[in-house]
Please model this.
Amino acid sequence: MALCRGVARFAAIKQFASMTDHHRKKEWTSIPTLPCASIEATLSFWEMLGFAITYKQTRPYQYGVVERGGAAVHFAALKGMETDERHYHGCLVAVPDAAEVYREFSQRMKTKLGRVPHAGLPRISRMKPGTTRFTLTDVSGNSIIFVSLGEKDQETWEKADDGQQSPLRQAIARAIRFRDYKEDEKAAAKVLDVALKKAADEDRLTMAEALIIRMDLASLMGDRDFAGECDIQLSRLDLPEEEIKRLKQQHGATM
Model:
């Protein structure tokens, strides 16, 4: 998704975080509006997540606004939206702690929907321990990225470009970028597959971390056989069980 790419978004987040009262007193105001198939269904979905509906109209056109924590998201119904499977719309919402928001949204979805959907519409991306963002896709396919304010998000992104680390360590950072920033599990898996084939002089802990991430990716993509193969390779490293457990917890491995 193009919204997730590029370093420009970090500049936007920094600008948002450093705004002063003087900067907020501006003459012009821009209000991006996201399309939706039904204003009723869209507003109801966001209300379920704890947002307040601050404006709604159905005639002469459907338009609505939800707000929470000082952030407002505007929606307008678009004819034909329900028949179009292509969705490229979204925005960033900067919050103090994305992990805390993720836990709340997941619990609300589980309570109201009976599950936490990671596929289809609506859905919420998986948020790994220690990460700084997640993507919530609503009933109309709009992808809202919730990101923690601060420098850690940028540091994690830029780590993938650090050529001073070992090839496998850099591959791990690149895989995390694909997995957590672009929601591209296939690309993350490919990066690790290539690096693991070439890994000859890597230390066992780095090898174990790469295998655990790759095993988790395989599990998420439904490839149980490959996940099992990774588990076998992991056991051959002969590392203490405590280290394996720590790495699995670090990456929120599902296996």
User: Anything to note?
Assistant: Strands lie at 33-36, 52-57, 63-68, 71-77, 90-95, 123-124, 133-137, 143-148.
